[in-house]
Amino acid sequence: MPSSVSHITLLCAAVAAALLLVAGTASAAPTPSGGGATYQPPPPPPEEAKLVNGRVIAPASAPRRVKRVIAAANLLVEKPYIYGGGHRPFSSALDRGYDCSGAVSYALYGGRFLRSPLPSGSLMSWGSAGTGDWITVYAHGGHAYIVVAGLRFDTSLRDRDAPGPPSGPRWSRTLRESDAFVARHPRGY
């Protein structure tokens, strides 16, 4: 008959093996994303915009409201990132800096798609679900950015050649891929 010490050793080994098995299974399972959405890349636009010296030149075939979104976003390039920036009522005077949703809101305001700024969480339910032909807003509770005519306007993950301070609203050729964001668009765009 085995001693009580060997029973305890055997029991500890069995518990440890069970814990490793459970831990291994748990870590192999996919982790849910922050937004519970599946990444939807924007479709190729009817005509892609051109990025020149940090500013975007709208495609000739773009609808007037898309051109206005691009023009408004271009005004914010080289502004610094400031948390809460861009959330005052819209006016002709620009803020000193913009956060992510403030920058997206101002761009959409330029195209007359918004009357007042929205936080990123509210952009998750703004407009119509899914990607648009010309404009797609990607949002989750903590961040938002917009893709217009195939180019991304965002306060993070900027291209190396982007002008201005190291953070703040910038155009980028690089699209970001994340299941955490919900895709929304203005109807018809």
Report a brief summary of the structure.
The protein has four helices and eight strands; from the N terminus they run αββαααββββββ. The chain is an alpha+beta fold and 189 residues long.
Keywords:
endopeptidase fold (from Nostoc punctiforme); two-stranded antiparallel sheet; 4 helices; globular
Structural summary, described in words:
- The protein is an alpha+beta fold.
- The protein folds into two domains: 1-31; 50-185, endopeptidase domain like (from Nostoc punctiforme) (endopeptidase fold (from Nostoc punctiforme), Alpha-Beta Complex), CATH 3.90.1720.10.
- 28% of the residues lie in helices and 16% in strands.
- It has helices spanning 4-28, 64-76, 100-110, 120-123, and strands at residues 50-52, 55-57, 128-129, 135-140, 143-148, 151-154, 170-172, 182-185.
- Strand 1 and strand 2 (55-57) form a beta hairpin.
- It is globular and about 35 Å long.
- The termini are far apart.
- The model is unreliable at 1-35 (pLDDT under 50).
